[in-house]
Amino acid sequence: MKSFSSVTRVRGSHFFCPLVALPASCIISLSTTFAESNLTFFCHSRTFKKTTYYLLDIFYTSVKMLEHKPAKVFCIVGTLIVFIVTVALNALSSQPDYSSGIFTNTISNVSDRYSTGITPSSWTFSIWSVIYFWMALWIAYCQVAIFIKPGGDYLYKDPAFMSCTFFFLYIINLFLNIIWIVLFDRIYFIVCFFVILFMVLSAYACIGMCSYSLAQNLDELTVENLGYHIWLIRFLVQNGIAVYATWLTVATHQF
Predict the structure, then answer these.
(1) Are 173 and 203 within 8 A, CB to CB?
(2) pLDDT tens-digit series, residues 113-162
């Protein structure tokens, strides 16, 4: 049967090729069956399931993010990260032996060495523990605001809540805080004065922006029965930054 078989001459001998003898339809059938079996195995495999779940999770996250304001979330979370770094460096400045050379003196020692008529006593520097604790409370409150919906929408999106500009300016203030403690440790007093001056101005600017946005949307929060958030913003944010700004103002008189 010449149509279904083939005889090939190799070096004078006859060699029979069985694959060529198979009908073309049989080859196609075997290939299709093999492909379907592999596809079925892949679909039921653990890798396929993990990949599917991963893609669905990305899709679900993307849909959820449409409900959020990514820029504002970034500013709020960024404030928390920079605050943690600021507190860590301030803690190291009080223990210069453990700072790996970043600091050589404590702030209180430098202040005592170059004291003025209004330089506060060393024990008064413990006020920074209260200031940073108060700061931690309102920053934590802002993180919670990303996840709660007391009025039908996320709290941080409410117009009465602090704006992106507020958080961005406060991040700058925290960076200036870090710069100031390093410069003060190196006894660069003139530069320190201008740095702390900008810290004071930015702190008061944050209080002004927070107070303005709250005052402009006070009635809306009252109608939505969110009065307790009004007091949380006033007590935690406004008063927390006010205490911070007040101590910064006092500190400017050392120079």
Answers:
(1) yes
(2) 777 766 667 677 788 899 999 999 999 999 999 999 887 789 999 889 99
